[in-house]
Design brief:
There is one protein chain. Helices cover 31% and strands 24% of the residues. It has one domain (2-316): 3-Layer(bba) Sandwich (FAD/NAD(P)-binding domain), CATH 3.50.50.60. Helix 1 runs parallel beside helix 4 and helix 5 (251-280) crosses helix 6 (287-302). Strand 11 (161-168) and strand 12 (171-178) form a beta hairpin. It has helices at residues 9-19, 45-54, 92-100, 232-248, 251-280, 287-302, 313-316; strands spanning 2-5, 25-28, 42-44, 63-66, 69-74, 77-83, 87-90, 115-118, 135-143, 151-155, 161-168, 171-178, 194-196, 200-201, 210-211, 214-216. Strands 5, 6, 9, 10, 11, 12, 13 and 14 form an 8-stranded mixed beta sheet that branches. Strands 2-1-8-16-15 form a 5-stranded mixed beta sheet, covered by helices on one side. It is globular. With 317 residues, it is an alpha+beta fold. It binds flavin-adenine dinucleotide. Residues 5-11, 28-31, 38-43, 119-121, 123, 125, 138, 140, 175, 198, 200, 218-220, 224, 229-232, 235 line the site of flavin-adenine dinucleotide (FAD).
C-alpha cells in the first residue's frame, strides 16, 4: 500500500503513474475545492505535454497563452527580448481538478506502516521541517491589466528574486518572489481580481528527503529551480523518478536509490543555490561559481526560453 499525502501536481502525477500500473495507492489533500493555487502557471508546453500524456491527459487543452517574446530585464542589464522555446501559461486550477477526479482519497494516519509519500510542497507536513531550508516570500495578483503584453521578468538587485508578468488568456498574473518581504510592494500598484501568497522553497533538500517510512517528492524536497523558481516540471520529474524506483527497488533499498537518482538529475540545483547565495552576499568570483554559470543557461532553457549567458554576464559578476 502506498499513501500519497498532498495532491498538487507531483502527488497527482505519481498517483496515476502507480494506479495505472496496478499499484495499491491512495492520496489525500486538505485544500478546499475552490482554492486558487498560488503559482505563475508558466511552464514548458513541450515537456508538459510529454509528461501529462503518460497519465492520459492532453496538456494542450489547458494552455491559456503561448509566449512569443520573452523580456528579461534587471537592475544590472538592459532589457533583452528572448525567443520562446515552449514557454506558456495554463489553467493549473482546472487541470489539477480534472486530474484529481477519480483519485481514491484516504487520510493518512501517521502510525501507518505503509510507504508514505510526502508531496505536501512547502509544508513538508509528513517529513517535518529541515534546518537547512531557504524560503522566499511571494505575492501574486490575478489582474486584467498589465503594462507588459508578453512574458516579462525583472530580476531584482543583489539576486534577491524576480518580478513577473505573465499573460493568462485575457488576464495576467503579476507577482514577485523575493528573499525580502519589502519587495512585495512592487505588486501592490496593480488592481487585483484575486490575491495569492505563499512561501516558495528555493533550496534543494536532498539530505532530508526521507524519514523512516516517509519519502518526499516535489517542492517538499526542493525541486524548484533556484534561478527561475520553476517547480512544476521539476516536481513531476521527481515523481517520475519515484515511480521508477518503486517499480525497481525493494522497500529497504528505495530511499537510497531514489536519493541517488534525484541527485543525478537535480544535483546542479545545489550549485545554482550556491551561486545565488554568493550573488546575494556579494561574493561571486570563486572558481565554483564560474563553473556553475553554465547551469543558469540550462535551467532557463528548460523553462522554455532560448537563452545565452553572455549578454547577462554582468548580472553575475
Ligand atoms: C507564487 C508562486 C509562483 C510560482 N510560479 C511558478 C511558475 O510559474 N512555474 C513553475 O513551474 N513553478 C512555479 N512555482 C512553483 C510551483 O508552483 C511548485 O513548485 C509546484 O507546484 C510544486 O508542486 P508539488 O506537487 O510539489 O507541491 P504543491 O503543488 O504545492 O502541492 C502540495 C499539495 O499538498 C497539500 N497539502 C499540504 N499540506 C497537507 C497535509 N497536511 N495533508 C494533505 N495535503 C496537504 C496542498 O494542499 C497542496 O495541494 C511558483 C510558486 C509560487 C509560490
Amino acid at each position: 500500500m502506498i499513501r500519497i499525502g498532498g495532491l498538487g501536481i507531483s502527488g497527482l502525477y505519481l498517483y496515476w503513474r502507480l494506479k495505472n500500473d496496478g499499484f495499491d495507492v491512495t492520496g489525500t489533500d486538505k485544500k478546499k475545492d475552490n482554492f486558487y493555487i498560488p503559482c505563475g502557471y508558466a511552464t514548458n508546453e513541450k515537456l508538459m505535454q510529454e509528461y501529462m500524456s503518460r497519465i492520459n491527459f492532453d496538456f494542450h487543452e489547458y494552455v491559456l497563452s503561448r509566449a512569443d517574446n520573452v523580456i528579461f530585464s534587471g537592475n544590472n542589464f538592459q532589457d533583452r527580448t528572448l525567443n520562446s522555446s515552449g514557454l506558456c501559461t495554463f489553467d493549473k486550477n482546472k487541470m489539477e481538478k480534472d486530474v484529481r477526479e477519480g483519485v481514491e482519497q484516504v487520510s493518512i494516519n501517521s502510525m501507518e506502516k505503509s510507504l508514505i509519500v510526502d508531496a505536501t510542497g512547502i509544508s513538508r507536513s509528513f517529513l517535518g521541517r529541515s534546518q537547512n531550508d531557504v524560503q522566499y516570500y511571494t505575492l501574486e495578483y490575478l489582474t486584467d491589466e498589465s503594462e507588459y503584453d508578453d512574458f516579462y521578468f525583472y530580476f531584482l538587485k543583489y539576486g534577491k528574486g524576480y518580478f513577473w508578468s505573465f499573460p493568462l488568456g485575457d488576464k495576467y498574473h503579476v507577482g514577485i518572489g523575493s528573499i525580502s518581504k519589502e519587495d512585495l510592494v512592487r505588486v501592490r500598484k496593480y488592481k487585483p481580481i484575486k490575491i495569492t501568497s505563499r512561501n516558495i522553497r528555493m533550496i534543494p533538500l536532498f539530505d532530508s528527503l526521507n524519514k523512516s517510512n516517509i519519502i518526499g517528492i516535489g517542492e517538499a524536497i526542493g525541486t524548484v529551480s533556484p534561478i527561475t523558481g520553476e517547480g512544476i516540471i521539476p516536481s513531476i520529474k521527481s515523481a517520475e523518478i519515484m515511480y521508477q524506483c518503486i517499480k525497481t527497488y525493494d522497500p529497504q533499498e528505495l530511499a537510497e536509490a531514489y536519493r541517488e537518482r534525484i541527485i543525478k538529475e537535480f544535483g546542479y540545483y545545489s550549485k545554482l543555490h550556491q551561486l545565488v547565495s554568493s550573488i546575494q552576499s556579494g561574493k561571486i568570483l570563486s572558481i565554483n561559481n564560474i563553473s556553475s554559470i553554465k547551469y543558469v543557461k540550462q535551467t532557463v532553457n528548460d523553462f522554455g526560453i532560448k537563452f545565452e549567458i553572455l549578454p547577462f554576464l554582468k548580472h553575475f559578476i
